[in-house]
Amino acid sequence: MERDALLDEFMTHRGTLTADVLQVIDGEVEQGVERWLSERPEFVENWHRVIEEAQRSGIQEFSLYSMTCRKLGDLMRLL
Question: Which listed residue, of 8, 23, 53, 72, carries a Cα 20 to 30 Å from 66's Cα?
Answer without folding.
Answer: 23
